[in-house]
Amino acid sequence: MKFEEKTVDKKLLYKGKIIELNLHRVKLPNGKESSREIVNHPGGVAILTYKNDDTLIMVEQFRKPLEKTILEIPAGKMEKGEKPEVCGRRELEEETGYKAKTFKYLGKIVTSPGFCDEVIYIYEARDLYKGRNDIADEDEFINLKEIKTDKIKDMIKSGEIIDAKTVSSFMFI
Amino acid sequence: MKFEEKTVDKKLLYKGKIIELNLHRVKLPNGKESSREIVNHPGGVAILTYKNDDTLIMVEQFRKPLEKTILEIPAGKMEKGEKPEVCGRRELEEETGYKAKTFKYLGKIVTSPGFCDEVIYIYEARDLYKGRNDIADEDEFINLKEIKTDKIKDMIKSGEIIDAKTVSSFMFI
């Protein structure tokens, strides 16, 4: 069976720096109407960043929504009209100070398809070399850590790493 | 280094059926101020649902934010004050019509820590038996599919399955 929900009315509730919130009135497959709260997000790119064959560069960052510092692979939002690979290479350099000779697309994920359209494209970066280190986002405060991939797998299974893009990216290794 | 962003002011922008949107004025580690758009979500539970040792029950569902039908493991939102296991058992029965003799916690993920506080708890359900099949959410239209775990892994790697909670759950298998 094919289901669909057609928008019969749409109201922009909020347009912010990063997200937009829209309330859709939709027609359900059974003919009834319902509402859907939808967060529109520009999407992002996350990068499995290989310092060498068995070690990744990870980013430790305070995440305000969780009121907690967590460990993630380097990642960032796409700017308007920016292609995923361009975004990924930019974010890699901004967050780690490295550029990559090898930059390969692995797959994509949708983070919260029930209420949000965010897509994260996952890449792997290898053969790193020093780029600029003066281009970090001035609103962003991060610590870099080099961690072995086997250790990261253990940290995922033990619950020390909970970030969905980081956990998901390991399915592409 | 420990970083933190203290809220100095907070404004509720929207309180909906499912999500709430708050704009925080925060003090950054460098003393400057910035704003953070934060979506508050009740969180949810996702269930690796074993029909037998090598086959999962999957849910195909139209996701309005993506304007697309995608394949996911059974999952749902927590009701106010509901414990994750209670939510998981309820959603399992609502979506698949099954109850489970074995219901085991595997881990949790945060889906979009940059702007949203959603946490998804991941469980595995085994030893299924028929529950009620008249309690489905009336706003929800789903198709159930039984798919072998090896096939699901292939579908993740090939990009046919992109749902982050589904992809992440396979790191706990």
TrEMBL record, chains A, B:
Q: Name one Pfam family in it.
A: NUDIX
Say yes or no: keyword Protein biosynthesis present: no
Q: Which keywords does UniProt give here?
A: Hydrolase
The record's listing under InterPro entries reads: NUDIX_hydrolase-like_dom_sf (IPR015797), NUDIX_hydrolase_dom (IPR000086)
Q: Which GO terms describe its molecular function?
A: ADP-ribose diphosphatase activity
Domain spans labelled Nudix hydrolase: 39-169
EC number of the protein? 3.6.1.13
Q: Which cofactor does it need?
A: Mg(2+)
Protein name, as recorded: ADP-ribose pyrophosphatase
Q: Which organism is it from?
A: Clostridium algifaecis
